[in-house]
Amino acid sequence: MTNNDEQLDQPLILTVAIIGGTGNLGPGLALRWTNAGYRVIIGSRQEEKAKATAKELNDKLDIETIQGMENRDAVKKANICVMTVIASAHQEVLESLKDDLQGKILIDTTARVDIQELKPPVAPSAARYAQDLLGPDVKVAAAFQNVPFHALLKDLDESLEMDVFIFADDPDTAKEAKMLAEAGGMDAYYAGDLDSALVAEGLTALLIAVNRRYKSKGGGIKLTGIEK
Ligand SMILES: NC(=O)c1ccc[n+]([C@@H]2O[C@H](COP(=O)([O-])OP(=O)(O)OC[C@H]3O[C@@H](n4cnc5c(N)ncnc54)[C@H](OP(=O)(O)O)[C@@H]3O)[C@@H](O)[C@H]2O)c1
After folding, report:
1. How far is ligand 1, taken at its centre, from the CA of residue 85, in Å?
2. What is the CATH number of the domain that holds 113?
3. Interval 105-151: pLDDT, tens
4. Is residue 219 domain-resident?
């Protein structure tokens, strides 16, 4: 058997870069995707910060495979990039990574929420904005806006009683995002195109309001009655 044959026998391991993965949402996703067999890179504006978060996560799982890099380097090494930067830096970060993201899949988790007032954000959706800014050679999907990070960090080996709505113009890109959600232990539904992702951003505001009212941190959404 040649080296090439051996490589073909290996299952394809996808590399996921989590842009801004040092914050609240990134680590929970990183832990779950690592457990599911993905190679995960934590991205940050600062390499040292990315490495520190990667180390914390590796220590939690008793492994050494999660890497930490500057966002740009993380994106270059990945097949799939997941955008988890604070919503206010969405535009700035996309502009800075535009060239490196060409030819990749970008899954945008951004939910622009006004925590003072319960109302949906203004169109276009963050993901539509990303697609327009990045151009057609980046395949954008929106997902995970309604998954509170607290829930992701609990019981890593168990499925979450929480669903993910996937938005993408292209069904194949939606399929990639759905696979990632399922790998993370969540059910996922292809809900519409990138414009429709605005609805999920609004739902995040609703979830935050209800979680606050009931003094909860991990309340999410679970659909019933849909046969897949
Ligand atoms: N938190 C949740 O439960 C949750 C759930 C669903 C969706 N989301 C969405 O996920 C995204 C991230 O949320 P989060 O709570 O994880 O945010 P966060 O912890 O406040 O910030 C995430 C990361 O953004 C980077 N960042 C901060 N300021 C920046 C700037 N000026 N320029 C570039 N990068 C900057 C930081 O990374 P570095 O300093 O390392 O660069 C930070 O660790 C948001 O769009 C949010 O709507 C969050």
Report:
1. 3
2. 3.40.50.720
3. 999 999 999 888 888 899 999 999 999 999 999 999 999 999 999 99
4. no
Place of tokens 């599911």: 36
- Does the beta carbon of 54 sit less than 6 angstroms from any atom of ligand 1? no
pTM passes above 0.85: yes
Which contacts qualify for 172-178: CB closer than 8 Å, 24 or more apart? Answer: 172/139, 173/105, 173/139, 173/140, 173/141, 174/141, 176/80, 176/105, 176/107, 176/139, 176/141, 177/105, 177/107, 177/141, 177/143
Confirm whether 223 is domain-assigned: no
- Does 6 fall in a domain? no
User: How many domains, the chain?
Assistant: 1
Residue 96 and residue 43 in contact, taking contact as beta carbons nearer than 8 Å: no
40: in domain: yes
